[in-house]
Known about the structure:
Blueprint: E1 2-3, H1 7-16, E2 21-23, E3 33-38, H2 40-52, E4 58-61, H3 72-84, H4 101-111, E5 119-122, H5 125-137, E6 147-150, E7 165-169, H6 171-186, E8 194-202
Parallel strand pairs: 1-2, 2-3, 3-8, 4-5, 5-6, 6-7
Antiparallel strand pairs: 7-8
Amino acid sequence: VVHAGSRELLEWGIASGVPMLALGGHARSLPMASTGADGIEAYRAAVRHLAGLGHHRIVLLAPHQFRHPEEMQVLKEYKAELEAQGIAPSSYHVPDWEETPEGLERELTSLFRITPPTALVVLKTKWTVGVLSFLARRRLRVPEDVSLGSWGHNSELAWHRPAMAHFASDQELMVRRIVRWIRGLAKGRPDHEFQPIPLTFVAAGTTGPAKG
């Protein structure tokens, strides 16, 4: 069972014949058993919520896989929702950046230099730690100065106050998918299906009216 596997790793699994179930990652277009979040409506809901609070400078910090053909539809829908809310999408709203602590620091420094975002949506929970650190050093408050949404709401972020806005899914559906895959293997009936898991946006205390 591979969590957030790279395309190279998953293709190796297919070529080697090793039974493999992918949880997220780059599996959607590959002939293998997989499951992952179906986030299109959740991302659109996040944009609608933030735009309703007066935000126009909404920045999505997304992984590079969003530029991969299998994920491009999600990015297109995100930009379409920006347009629907009267916001002309550009590279500002979904920047291309180096996914390292240093790269995040450089990107945030650049973003806040001239036209600082009023809302950040961060699509990996671990990046949220870096964003919170950056904002604290700039003495920017959440949500008074910047609204913030995180991909997940793990045990660490559950301690954050105000409560962190985040994306959520029913983890029981993922567990059921794993069990179904294992039972199929045990009976000699492996499957190659992708099972989407609906994602929802949970608005919470880290989102508020746009400043100014």
